[in-house]
Amino acid sequence: MVIDINLSNPEAIHHPAGQGPIPQPSLNRMSQYHHYLMELQDQGIDRVSCSRIGADLNLVPVQVRKDLQYTGIIGKPKTGYVVAELILAIESFLGWNNVNEAFLVGAGNLGTALLGHERFTKFGLQIVAAFDSDPSKIGQWVHGKAVLPLDKLADLAQRMSIHLGIITTPAEAAQTVADEMIRGGIQAIWNFAPARLKVPTHVIVHSEDLYSSLASLSWKLAQRFHVPIQQEGGTPDGVDANCG
Length: 244
What we know:
By secondary structure, the chain is an alpha/beta fold. It has helices at 24-42, 50-57, 61-69, 83-94, 109-115, 153-160, 171-183, 210-224, and strands at residues 4-5, 12-14, 21-23, 47-48, 81-82, 100-105, 125-132, 141-142, 145-149, 164-167, 188-191, 204-207. The protein contains 8 helices and 12 strands. The protein has a 7-stranded mixed beta sheet with strand order 8-9-7-6-10-11-12. Strands 1-2-3 form a 3-stranded antiparallel beta sheet. A two-stranded antiparallel sheet has the order 4-5. Strand 6, helix 5 (109-115) and strand 7 (125-132) form a beta-alpha-beta unit. The longest helix has 19 residues, at 24-42.
């Protein structure tokens, strides 16, 4: 399955089957539904309704129904969905039943962790090789994957028809790596580097902004355990120094 980004509205994704624009939040919830349904299947539950899904996941049932309709499956009144069929529909919609082979660039700590993440294959992703520019890493094997010179990437990507690239390099190297991936015909980039990439419009980029996520989490935590700011040589804001 190919999913095309609507460049006039980056918050909407178009599905090739013609159901119209898919809001990004709906697309994000698909993996949540899938994880939940897998748990139901493990418990021996073979049918589920939008009302139950909504109650268990703290979502409005109408929203659940609208989200799941993008997969092409329609629930039946009173009986809901067959769990196994709904799982298959979501996997087909997301392309998880078709394994995508990928190249990873950056065999450092993060890259090594991703190379060893065995569950990726359950979601249709198989990292087949790693690349790096560090001579000390080239020629090594990491979790069964060979680490190759970066200058070999473009040629191998073309020969092996690799369309997905993963970047786990430092920020200063990310654009050079992206350029090399594009030269090799890679169509989609999963970017973990803290850098904004410049790519042609036909190339899909999804950036994992770990720093923004940490900033958001830290801010929310600070709000929950808010402590008045201590002023230099004084008392915290809002505190009367004469209070006993």
